[in-house]
Specification:
elongated, about 180 residues, Cytochrome Bc1 Complex, Chain D, domain 2, about 55% helix, mainly alpha, binds heme C, 2 domains, 8 helices
């Protein structure tokens, strides 16, 4: 009797554990890349800093010009598949109901294709410089708090640089990358 009771409890605990593990596995599937990158950084920080891992992890990111100099537009083109859920990328492409056309976006005035932008985006009155694109693509809401772009952002600086390098290839007359 007693051991049956214990078995039940053990079973319930095991079930909960499995459920949590399954959640973890599902979450890993969604965020696999981000997780990997985080681990990479933590390790690099640890190695560099002789034990001051925390301080190194909080160190500023590699400057954008350095990242852009190493960026791979071809990889960025692959990564931009996710953008095509909402955006057209070809020159002269129409705005979708879900997002404006992105051809020519580098150097363009923010919120200027005629798409039904958020008021926040319309009110920016700024240009899509490489810095602004980098900030927006890290976390759209960090640049335009009320943005309609419900894309979480690419947290990996190198992958973001690849994306920006790709956007440059679809933007006639885009300025050269800043020199590192
Ligand atoms: C879920 C849909 C969705 C996804 C996915 C998405 N976007 Fe957007 N994007 C939008 C919307 C909507 C806007 C307009 C935002 C506003 O008005 O605030 C926008 C705006 C932009 C702008 C500003 C354009 C302009 O004309 O000012 C850029 C740049 C941009 N997105 C880049 C990207 C890139 C690069 C990706 C892929 C990495 C991406 N977006 C993924 C929906 C999306």
């Amino acid at each position: 009797m007693h051991s049956l009771e214990l078995n039940k409890i053990a079973g319930a605990l095991l079930g909960t554990l499995l459920f949590v593990m399954a959640l973890g596995i599902i979450a890993d599937g969604f965020f696999a890349r981000h997780k990997l990158e985080k681990a990479g950084y933590a390790l690099a920080g640890f190695v560099d800093s002789h034990g001051a891992g925390q301080a190194a992890a909080a160190a500023p990111d590699t400057p954008l010009p350095v990242l852009l100099a190493k960026a791979d537009a071809k990889k960025g083109e692959g990564a931009a598949k996710v953008c095509t859920t909402c955006h057209t990328l070809e020159k002269g492409g129409a705005d979708k109901p879900t997002g404006p056309n992105l051809a020519g976006v580098v150097g363009r005035k923010m919120g200027s294709t005629g798409y039904a932008y958020s008021d926040g985006m319309k009110g920016m009155g700024n240009e899509w410089t490489y810095e602004n694109l980098n900030k927006f693509l890290t976390n759209p809401k960090s640049l335009v708090a009320s943005t309609k772009m419900s894309y979480a952002g690419e947290r990996d600086p190198a992958k973001r640089a690849d994306l920006i390098a790709f956007l440059r290839t679809i933007s006639d007359g885009a300025p050269p990358f800043p020199t590192p």
